[in-house]
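Notebook B, p. 112. Complex prediction, attempt 2.
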Amino acid sequence: SFSMPKIAVVQAGSRLYDTPATLSLLENYTQDAAKNGADLVLFPEAFVGGYPKGLDFGVVLGLRSDEGRSEYARYFNGAITAEGEESKRMAKIAQENNIWIVTGVVEKEGSTLYCSVFFYSSLGKLEAVHRKLLPTALERVVWGQGDGSTMPVIDSPVGKIGTAICWENYMPLYRVTLYSKGVEVYLAPTVDSRDEWLPTMQTIALEGRCFVVSSCQFLRARDFPDDHALRSKHTDDEVLIRGGSCAVNPLGKVLLTPDFTKEGMFYVDLDLSIIPKARFDLDPVGHYSRPDVFQLRVNEDKKSTVVFEK
Amino acid sequence: SFSMPKIAVVQAGSRLYDTPATLSLLENYTQDAAKNGADLVLFPEAFVGGYPKGLDFGVVLGLRSDEGRSEYARYFNGAITAEGEESKRMAKIAQENNIWIVTGVVEKEGSTLYCSVFFYSSLGKLEAVHRKLLPTALERVVWGQGDGSTMPVIDSPVGKIGTAICWENYMPLYRVTLYSKGVEVYLAPTVDSRDEWLPTMQTIALEGRCFVVSSCQFLRARDFPDDHALRSKHTDDEVLIRGGSCAVNPLGKVLLTPDFTKEGMFYVDLDLSIIPKARFDLDPVGHYSRPDVFQLRVNEDKKSTVVFEK
Amino acid sequence: SFSMPKIAVVQAGSRLYDTPATLSLLENYTQDAAKNGADLVLFPEAFVGGYPKGLDFGVVLGLRSDEGRSEYARYFNGAITAEGEESKRMAKIAQENNIWIVTGVVEKEGSTLYCSVFFYSSLGKLEAVHRKLLPTALERVVWGQGDGSTMPVIDSPVGKIGTAICWENYMPLYRVTLYSKGVEVYLAPTVDSRDEWLPTMQTIALEGRCFVVSSCQFLRARDFPDDHALRSKHTDDEVLIRGGSCAVNPLGKVLLTPDFTKEGMFYVDLDLSIIPKARFDLDPVGHYSRPDVFQLRVNEDKKSTVVFEK
Amino acid sequence: SFSMPKIAVVQAGSRLYDTPATLSLLENYTQDAAKNGADLVLFPEAFVGGYPKGLDFGVVLGLRSDEGRSEYARYFNGAITAEGEESKRMAKIAQENNIWIVTGVVEKEGSTLYCSVFFYSSLGKLEAVHRKLLPTALERVVWGQGDGSTMPVIDSPVGKIGTAICWENYMPLYRVTLYSKGVEVYLAPTVDSRDEWLPTMQTIALEGRCFVVSSCQFLRARDFPDDHALRSKHTDDEVLIRGGSCAVNPLGKVLLTPDFTKEGMFYVDLDLSIIPKARFDLDPVGHYSRPDVFQLRVNEDKKSTVVFEK
Amino acid sequence: SFSMPKIAVVQAGSRLYDTPATLSLLENYTQDAAKNGADLVLFPEAFVGGYPKGLDFGVVLGLRSDEGRSEYARYFNGAITAEGEESKRMAKIAQENNIWIVTGVVEKEGSTLYCSVFFYSSLGKLEAVHRKLLPTALERVVWGQGDGSTMPVIDSPVGKIGTAICWENYMPLYRVTLYSKGVEVYLAPTVDSRDEWLPTMQTIALEGRCFVVSSCQFLRARDFPDDHALRSKHTDDEVLIRGGSCAVNPLGKVLLTPDFTKEGMFYVDLDLSIIPKARFDLDPVGHYSRPDVFQLRVNEDKKSTVVFEK
Amino acid sequence: SFSMPKIAVVQAGSRLYDTPATLSLLENYTQDAAKNGADLVLFPEAFVGGYPKGLDFGVVLGLRSDEGRSEYARYFNGAITAEGEESKRMAKIAQENNIWIVTGVVEKEGSTLYCSVFFYSSLGKLEAVHRKLLPTALERVVWGQGDGSTMPVIDSPVGKIGTAICWENYMPLYRVTLYSKGVEVYLAPTVDSRDEWLPTMQTIALEGRCFVVSSCQFLRARDFPDDHALRSKHTDDEVLIRGGSCAVNPLGKVLLTPDFTKEGMFYVDLDLSIIPKARFDLDPVGHYSRPDVFQLRVNEDKKSTVVFEK
């Protein structure tokens, strides 16, 4: 009684500072994925809005620069909202191609940016949003922190899906939260292209007894605008993020091996019937847990600085 | 002012790996029990979902096998949930026959199985669930542990009922918990068919000053599917669990003597008026206890690895 | 590396109101037991001091009689103290015969009587005392309640021994306390000669995974003094307590079957090597317990109405 | 500023085994008391539920009889609960007659009986319950022991009231507990009709510097049902409990002298202004105590064999 | 095995301010008692040293007078010490007459007086001392408070004896302390000659299940020196303390009825065999206590204002 | 200011059922490790006591066999206690060689076995014990569950050390507990020799920013006794557990690559100065956590079925 769904994994970079172009790219990949029978297409972290790798936004300890502020303003302008036109366009692309789209986006709310993942169903609806809980290092200068209210695990044609972005995958308590919500297909959009990424994905699959599918950007210097200061430091073909998208089954077997050489789209078939077999000897929130010793309290409140009481 | 209720005690085996067939069997017994005036029909441990006695699920120390995982997946598929269709069917059978059904089931929640007892009232409602607290020996490999939140004692037409499954009957602190909740008719679904079972039931009746009614499976090799590997090891009529259902009154007198020869259904009439007489000289949680010396703390929390706070 | 010790189980009645005669009887049995190679001889409940079965001590609801008070005074006079001459005599008997003696006694402290068990080692020392925690029915009129300070489990040549007297055996929380202290040979002196006693002993052996050895009085009317009022109600040979001493191994197998026909002494050999095997699948205070759900608090204080602090 | 309240003291027996009839009797006395201006009406020990004086419930040492168990079951059936219909009826009688009712009852909780006192206010509410801490002699066979959680001293129109039942009056540490809670009017329902009762009441008044009001049953053989076995042993008019209700002021002066000849109701007026005068030279928990030498520790925990923690 | 000892109870007044004369009186009574076969002779409170009833020692609130100071100095001079000549004389009287003497004395230590009881054995030894713990009313102006180090219960030819002086008998925690130490013959020297004294003594006997023997002064105005100011207020024969010595058995029966008319000496025979009979249904520190609810802590330290540490 | 300590990693199997021989093996390896300058020698899971891989202890669903019980008894006999002779011998070996020993042991307490790790310091002291929290699959039949009281992280010459045994490494909440206690060198004794083990170790190092050192058994069929039933199923040289010991630094770099071909001992040097560098961008219990969203509650109570309060 188990189905055999297919996921398309996109390994590509944004068109930096050009969100319409990025969305066209997203549409192209989505159309191809749909043609090839995928039920869901996964894009990397910050795909919409971009991950301008290598910038410092003019910050040193104790100082910011005018140039850095301008850089940020430009970056801010390329970000999107859940309700905006760009989001509606993506919803429509999903509907037109009868496929789910899960993509990294740079989201803005008020004056703060978030590194988010948007989940669009094939009904053309934004089903869920996750905001990265902990930006890493300099990311903390451009992105805010998500809160406990955006940690969805939802039903989809490929099973119950949830997501952890880049180094959120090194947050064991967040992972346990996803396990506890029943994640079957754990989506990991990232820009981390180290060799150690695959072992990490394997371990999460083994620990959570779920499929893990990771999509990483493949970013070249030429994805920056021609006039961008960074261009002068690199040749056009220089690779800034080298990919490494991968997939692993619930017993730790690698289904999609990283390819660090090119942009592209890969397909993974998921035999969901393996899940109960894999949880026979390890169910991280069931028989293989010790709630009498360890109990994780998760606060899912929407955290707002000001609360108005009527 | 005491009534004289009747319990039907089913001594039968599941149709292994065929839950619909087992439910039909359950319906047949229930109809007969109702026709014969029973107020409640009791089925053995794991009756729905089955107790595939003699299997090892491919586990030896340090190893699991693919065959064992597949066996487990097959077993997992036959398990039911409290809210699922199978449970609704049983609730309807109870309602249609105007009788209570108390039955052992293999319950699944998430990816973990539990050895449970479901209590259906004649109103067609699942009134209560108990999950076995301590699986024995190899059971620990296929079943998780229940927690303190599913230890019901509830009113029924046959008096206050509670349950202890198989070797839970050797957990004195759990028994005291049931006494403390006022159990009058202690139901003991089991697959233990040793000679020592009857003395154990007598002693619990004497200690708790309650009726004890035990229903044991009568399982033959042919209750496995024809294609099951175990079939080749046995003749069809070989008995794997030989029954031994029994009932005892609160002064330790045997009301239903074990019959180890056949599948069947037996009836027990309960003269509840004997309970206060029996507790005249022994009330295990009242005048015959020493709370100044011994005090049992019972934690009834629902133990969850993750607790969401909103 | 396990030894094979032997216990002698005495099934005899006291010489009522004649403690010196009872001690002589105890000495005779002890000598025989020692000659036959026993390591420990077990006497029944209240053997020293007596269990004048059938008396009512002149109490009805709301009244006591002078005759009842005198009967009680006579009974009080036959009771002994831990430090008194009778106790020293028993210690000496144990030493002279190089055997342990465990015997029920009626103990007095101040003006209250207790139904106790005294443990004498072959070194001629009173090693431990247990006082019955809960007298049953009319016993409550002649005996006080022990407290948590006299619940010993001690090393002996037959393994770790502890005791529960008569219906204390129906106190599950006391039994768990003995298991927790590591009892290996559970001694159950009694005056209960019902048919249900053997099943109770079997169940305790199964639950505690220990040997259970029970010694019951065999009391005839002629054990009362000739001049006692009760003598006129009975023929001399009328049996007031019919025995039923028994022994069971940790898997519930009966080692000594009750004989309800005569006074006598029986022998039981204990193969202690069976204990770890029996606890393989059930260790009531180890792997087969759920301390996260059930935790028993035991107060071992010596409870004294007045505490002197100097 | 002291008021002069009036207490009605009932000297009557229960209609044994006929709780509705006893409640009607209670209602009649209450109506009369209210008409005569009493603020509180006091009934004897075990008035509701009865004190079947002279019964032995078939217990002798080592034996219970079927007849005794049936007698107990009959007695059990006549007992009441704090929340039951009988209690509601008494609350309503108090409210309708605008009077406080303090009465002895045989209370049941679970399968154990207690000898209790229920306090109903004129608001029609059960304000407090006290359970006898130490049943005497054969009472120990039919009643359990109360614990430290039911030792109320509460405000009432006749001053601060508390109670000690029958021989609880010989528990000096309980009395000191009541003094310590500020008892002004010490209510002593009883079935003790010895000559020594009045001196005891005087001494408590002197020691506690409080009013003591004692209500004793006046029970005749005909208060048993016609078919009761005890009836054949007595003439109808034979007096089983002869009364002796009395009252004493805080200086030991007798306000109501015992009348051992008849059923009836007596009135006592309380001049509360005498209390501080009496405590001028003796305040048992104030200036006339030596807490540096004697300190009484009182444990008011509700002692429960099982404690549920959720 | 119980003996039948005899106590002589002296009802006489001191020769006030003339200790040698009082000691002669004491010797006379002792000789008579011994001749009449008494084992112990009991004198009233403050017999040696005197109870100058009716004096105010010149104290009003906020003021003392010179006359009062002088009165106190005179009183102080008549007091004795445990080691002094007067005490040695009494020890010798006891030895010479082969009798125990228990007498009230006014004891001095340093500059403080205590109302004490001295126990002399027939061996001519001061065996024990008790100092009154709580002087009453104006006594607090002339006597200090004893501490927990002088609360003896000791063996004697009349059984275990202890003492409570005058209104110490209204200190329930002190009485319980004496019960706990095993008092069998409770000696109550007093100067309280109210009617309520006998009921108090009866109640203590009933509560403690012990013999109570009380000796009260019979003091006339002429017992003051001729020159004493008080003499002018009274006729010589006016009775200032009227006696009322009495004795009660452990079931509350009066053995010696008060005689309020004269000085004299009375005899009481004690049938100690009644004690266990009486404690059959009430042992205040054994089976009739609730140490789980009430626990009395007694501090027996010798309380010294300055403690020297070596 | 960081030192460069050395760890010796033993890859060897026990001499099954021969604990003295295993201890000699342990001593040999320890001597070699010390000679080669190691500060700490790490042995695999269950090294002392053994991991009899491939056994089923005679358990199938619903049945245990006599042979299985005997096998268990044999296994039980080879287990050790923290205070026993074997433990003292290991402590002495550590002291004599001036080295720390951390080793897997099969520990017994009462009648239950635990899979533990014992930490011996070079002072010859057993410094800490960890008991496996969750046995896997068939292990649940032979080992009990540890509780929260044995989760040490302690100082040692190689830094702060803690341990997780075998699949405990897949318990994220336990790992977070160790991180929270400050583990620097995370020791992972195991019998898991799958290919996926190394990625798991890498991921833990990356997540916890600590060194991870894992020691796996290398077990051959001939490590079973000659007479063991399992011997007939294998050739002597057949490998049952193939090793795979490894070590990883806090940035995920492999320091010791698994060798699956032979028994042996390997050395790892730890440059502890890398730890703060590695935690610059990821501190799992510091700046890289979200306690406002995720809070882990850890219960470190010693869980005991019975708690004695004195």
